[in-house]
Amino acid sequence: FGLSLIVSASALVEVQNNYHETIGIPTAERIWATEQDILAKNVQGSRIIGGELSPYERNAHFGALLINLEGTSQSSVCGSSLLTVSRILTAAHCWQDGTHQATQFIVVLGTRFLYSGGERIGTREVYVHPEYDVQFFTNDIAIGYLPRRATLRHGVQPIRLPRGYELESTFEGQWAVAVGYGKTSDQQEHASLMVSEVSLQVIGHDDCASVFGSDFVKESTLCTNGTGGVGICDGDSGGPLAARGSDRTNYLIGVSSFTVRGDCEGGHPSAFTRVTSYLSWISPQLIHK
Fold first, then answer.
1. The pLDDT value given to residue 20
2. Which residue stretches of the chain have pLDDT < 50?
3. For the chain, which terminal residue's Cβ has fewer other Cβ atoms within 10 angstroms, N or C?
4. Rounded distance between C-alpha atoms, residue 8 and residue 263, angstroms
5. Residue of 93, 100, 190, 268 marked active site
6. Ranges for the Peptidase S1 domain (predicted)?
7. Annotation marks residue 234 as catalytic
8. Are 258 and 217 in contact (CB under 8 A)?
9. 93 is catalytic
10. What confidence score (pLDDT) does residue 288 get?
11. Burial class of residue 74, CB neighbours in 10 A (0-12, 13-18, 19+)
12. Which of 54, 81, 196, 237 is the catalytic position?
């Protein structure tokens, strides 16, 4: 798969498919080559579009994914959310993007870096939603089973799922935080070298569909406002979008899915898989072995 082309009411918008070849692999290679230098120099300023550096303690539910792929020695990278001590949630296209099939996720917890520090747990037991459509990112969600329990500590904690009145909310107008390795600007060649975060405001379904079209934006898609050049970008795939509950705890409302290719700062919406649409699929899988 190459680029998916969408005609909106006013413009032709491109959404990037073939994630691993075009984004994930180059990102992992760049991080590998430069991370030690970044650590040594204590470089600051890497962030997703409009965001700021994110201490891992503030996003203890985030798990980086170092991805092994079938037929190549090259690795790719995505994000994920720790739901329980033995389950992670990510985007389906991180496991299979239409061109590349992953064979293993190495889940990296408790560090903002990909190759340094933290706890690392490999898993080959990943379940993609049975109705995942790789072309239009429909049902772009997958759950990973960890072969051993993650060690919970400062910087490694599960995030809860929506409950109560949150189950009926569209979250329109609400602010939430996205976390990932995405680029900090369109001029940056690949992704950020460290985990970073950005606050985004959820918009309505129709506003998002007017940009991406109804083939991509379903009722199970959640979108955020890109005004001011903020949003997810290349390298954020699979990462969490978390809202703050009335009980002052964070809960997961979205999984980073897609955005406009090559124009992250163009003011376009960011698209996420809406977690509340999949609770009946997710919840039975959270029972520990």
1. 93
2. 1-12, 43-47, 53, 184-191
3. C
4. 15
5. 93
6. 48-287
7. no
8. no
9. yes
10. 66
11. middle
12. 237
CA–CA distance, 172 with 174 (Å, rounded to integer):
5
Q: What is the pLDDT of residue 134?
A: 94
Token digits of residue 230 = 């903020």
Q: Which of 140, 192, 257, 270 is catalytic?
A: 140
- Residue 168: per-residue pLDDT: 95
Residue 183 makes CB contacts below 8 A (sequence gap 6+) with 48, 49, 190, 191, 192, 233, 234, 235, 264
Entry pTM: 0.88
CA–CA gap between residue 166 and residue 36 (Å, rounded): 42
Ordered domains of the chain (ranges, CATH)? 19-44+60-158+280-286 (2.40.10.10), 160-276 (2.40.10.10)
Reported as a single tens digit per residue, the pLDDT across 8-58 is 443 335 676 789 998 899 888 888 877 767 666 664 433 455 555 455 678
